[in-house]
UniProtKB/TrEMBL annotation:
CDD domains: RHOD_HSP67B2. Keywords: Signal. PROSITE patterns: RHODANESE_3. This is Thiosulfate sulfurtransferase like domain containing 3. It comes from Rattus norvegicus. It comes from the Eukaryota. It holds the Pfam family Rhodanese. The keyword rRNA-binding does not apply. Residues 1-22 form the signal peptide.
Amino acid sequence: MKQNKPFLTNPLLVMCITATDALRRTGLKSRWGSSQHFCSTLSKDVTYRELKNLLNSKDIMLIDVRNTWEILEHGKIPGSVNIPLDEVGEALQMNPREFKEKYGEEKPSKSDRLVFSCLAGVRSKKAMDTAISLGFNSAQHYIGGWTEWVTYEISEKKQS
């Protein structure tokens, strides 16, 4: 007899639904206020095309968390601000004047949309987690990182 596959095969989705159901049954709210918001914060990946659109709309602050030498050696996504991963937590807690002096940009507010990038998505995920823990609930990360960005940009230039 053919066995039916379970409807929910994505473990992250199952965890999200389970957490939502548990919170709803107990009447408790997540630390972010509602169980729905809790689940929406679990997946914060941004694709190349989404990042390109966000950069064009100027609706984000893109923070590259690679080391400064990596940016000098390999380049950066236009419009990004370099804040190395080991500085992210401190930077996001600086007063606005200090942030502007050190990074040359206005300090983002907790409601601003932040996207973190790195070489290949590992450090940017850590930076995003740090930002969310500090109350920057609109933080995301570009999972493809500089490696993917360069590949797409070269491909797009060849097609032009």
